[in-house]
User: What shape does this take?
Amino acid sequence: MLCLWSYIALGQTGRQSGQPSPMRLVSSDVSGARDQGVFWSVNPVYEHQGSTLKSDSGQLYTDEVGNEFFEAHGNIVITQPSGTVITGTHLHYDASSQHAILTERVRMIDGQTTLTTDYLTYNLRSERGTYQNGGRIVGQGDTITSQRAYYFERTKDAYFNNKVVVRSPSVVIYSDTMQYNTLRRDAYFFGPTHINGRDGESLYTERGTYNTESGIAKFNKNNLYTEESRFLKGDSLYYDRDSGVGEAFRNVLFVDTLDKFYASGQYGKYLESDQSILMTDKPLIKYVVRSDTSEGNDSVNVAIDSVESKPEQLSRKERRQLEKEEQAADQLNTSVDSIQLSDSTAFDTTSNSLPSSPPVVDTAYMTADTLYSRVILVSAYRPLDLKLDRDGGEIDDQEDVDYGNIDELDLFESEGDVDSLSENMDESSVSLDSTQVTSTTDQEVRDIVNEKLSPPDSLEEISRITLADSILREHAVIPTGLEQDSLMNDAIRAVHTADTTIRDSSEIFADTAKTRIVKAYYNVRVFKSDLQAVADSAYYGMADSMFRFMGHPMIWSDGSQISADTIYMQLQNGSMDNALLKDNAFMVNAVLDTLKFNQLKGRRITAFFANNNIDRLYVDGNAENLVFSTNDKTNTITEMFYDRSSRIKVRMENKEIVDYVSIRKVDQKVYPFNMVTQENEILPGFIWRPQDRPKSVEDMLNRSRTPVATDDTDDKNDQGDLPPNGEIEQVPMKSLEEEPIEIEMQGSEAEEENSSQEKHDAK
Assistant: This one.
């Protein structure tokens, strides 16, 4: 007792003088002393600064300056006042610094956190642990292994470095530098990081946070979200795993390689449930269309009139503008943005080599205030049956069917069809990504990735998981960032390549087959190298490749403008197939350098295409045609031709009219040019608005159309750039004194049987 009291007094004196207190032997089975001041014990239990150190055997000694050291072996157990327990096989403890080194099957348990390694340095004073040769930390369902780590017991923060692999029930994370909080389950990334979901989704970032419990990610550097064939990137990225919602901000890009869908903007919101994307703030959609390989262009010549549309028919100002647009179109493939690949070259999707005869392609661009696209079941899609007939069909003098507005389209059988999408995920989505392991056939590594995540129960279990973690780190492919750039470039290349493959019909019409739809709201603008359009809203269905333009739509091509209440345009195999102008259909074409316009009007106009050029055209319902004839030698207007009937039929070859027929209720006149007046040179409902025409992609994004008058009277007077006083440019002409020439023709049956010479004369 006297010795014990003396020991305690000495310890108190040491603490009072600022010297580290000595270790105190609490109990042992056998103890003894050796030469050089070594005190040995069997099953000793020491107390130091509130912590207890226990082992099978131990030796306590002091160096020449009075620092105590404790060497222990077998069943090491260190218990701290906080309740943290550290176990191992060997221990070297420096009492002066309270620094412990534990080796071989080391385990530290701090509440719900368990650290396992073969070599751990731990400071009992600062409560900080470090491993340098590989280890793992398990906490609340997350298992993290890395080559190096630093653990702070007080804040529950851990810093991992060199081949970091995080496994949770929902994700597997690969990184090289990461901070993790075991209480909040927040992971902070400071370098290239992959977060691979167990359901096939994947996140990439180089700086951001991810909560493994809630599944909420907030990234702000080189971010990319992928899900099967879909890619979403932006300067900032937000993702909620449970709701399947992803939001991207600034320089947003969404690509679906399966549907060849490309959209960009400054804000995007993605929903996994229906694979939908909402884009705002200068959104832009790109769509690749095939061109006629024999002509090398994709001219959709909507300039339909009774006179061939020639460049010299345009004003000098318009010709110069068209030349600028053509030059700008040639540069679009490389200068629209830094990641845009050449649209003039089509790559084979199965290899990196160029096909022997690549199809010529062009890109159509569409923007609006809001763009929305989603994936639905093909069986739920309701295509429009416009009942178009290349032979014209019967003349219908009745009112057309009202196909409704974009918001009234019944696209789904029931809400259940939308909900069922999440239940029909591809089985391949649950397979491991190639970035997770170097060899998907290595079953051992796959078992390690998908092992049951739980703390070790025995020393043998510690040895097993230490070996398993070593194998996992050896096979782990830590991202460098370069592969993400390659992945995105491949996706962009695929979506900008014309689709030349023919899908299996059994796959297309399967019950689980899906298709994508696109909606554009407010201030819709379209730009293509040879076609531009504006509308209030638009709708596109990939199932039938049908475009629907609604709300004062207008389309321009070369020197021509078309308009109607609703315009339908349909593609087939990536090329224009047909178009329908429904209600108040109007086509206008500028004549020479004048303010005279060839005009074609009807209740509906139907056009059919061949090799992306109009093959035949039908005007129905009070069809009217007004054409100015010109003298090619003098380059002057000579007369004006007017035609009104129930139907006008035009057939074309190589952009030239080869057949023109008026059917039923014919009323035709020819006016000498000196008898052309302001009243008869324009058909009712005439509109000419070149100021609304997009001049380039940049112009399309930064400028919307001017407001369109809704009043019928205003529409009739809306003549764009025409002078308000109605004056027109003086044109050199002959002195013609003749009266208007009346032309009477027979009914539809007799008209169809006229000879080619009579048809030519009638034209």
